[in-house]
Specification:
- By secondary structure, this protein is mainly alpha-helical.
- It is built from nine helices and two strands.
- A two-stranded parallel ribbon has the order 1-2.
- It is rod-shaped and about 80 Å long.
- It comes from Rhodoferax saidenbachensis.
């Protein structure tokens, strides 16, 4: 079943959708009303978006092979909610990658020092070619000035205000584990 989103303050929005569906399916008002267990007059009111019992709206929707969503969430709100969830997932994945970088830096071995060197080169490139905001360049430069073990602590300590932004604009993009 396809879900129709219904906004309780605007029943006139769903009636025309149900009418269009009925017509597209080639069903008469009489046939749909009878199958839904309502009068034809009630169906006409529903299709015009007039007041009718919610159970009547649901019966018509079900007869047309639809489910009537009563959550009150508009398609736009549902899309924004989905986008926020996707963004949160990206931020969580980026945080996880930076935690791995911090773990590698804590080892303070040759690969850690090479990764730090590449990150510093990336920040220098940002500055040289004006590819990134000076704020990010300055913050990453400060973070990367430390020795690898201290760098690991700096990455772990990225505050919530700047952490997500810094992880999104990371000089470790090419070396992320």
């Amino acid at each position: 079943m396809t879900k129709i989103l219904y906004m309780p303050t605007s029943p006139n929005l769903i009636g025309p959708q149900l009418r269009a569906l009925r017509i597209a399916q080639g069903k008469s008002q009489m046939d749909v009303a009878k199958a839904a267990g309502i009068s034809r007059t009630t169906l006409i009111q529903i299709e015009k978006g007039m007041d009718a019992q919610m159970s009547s709206y649901q019966a018509v929707a079900e007869e047309l092979g639809m489910a009537l969503g009563l959550g009150g969430e508009s398609p736009e709100l549902a899309e924004r909610r989905k986008a926020r969830q996707e963004n949160q997932a990206k931020l969580a994945a980026s945080r996880e990658k930076h935690l791995k970088i911090a773990a590698l830096m804590a080892l303070d071995d040759a690969p850690a020092r090479e990764m730090k060197s590449q990150a510093l080169q990336m920040v220098a490139l940002w500055k040289e070619r004006d590819l990134c905001s000076p704020v990010y360049i300055e913050r990453w430069t400060q973070i990367l000035q430390a020795e690898p073990k201290e760098l690991a602590r700096n990455i772990l300590a990225m505050d919530e205000d700047w952490g997500p932004a810094l992880r999104q604009n990371t000089p470790f993009a090419l070396t992320l584990p």
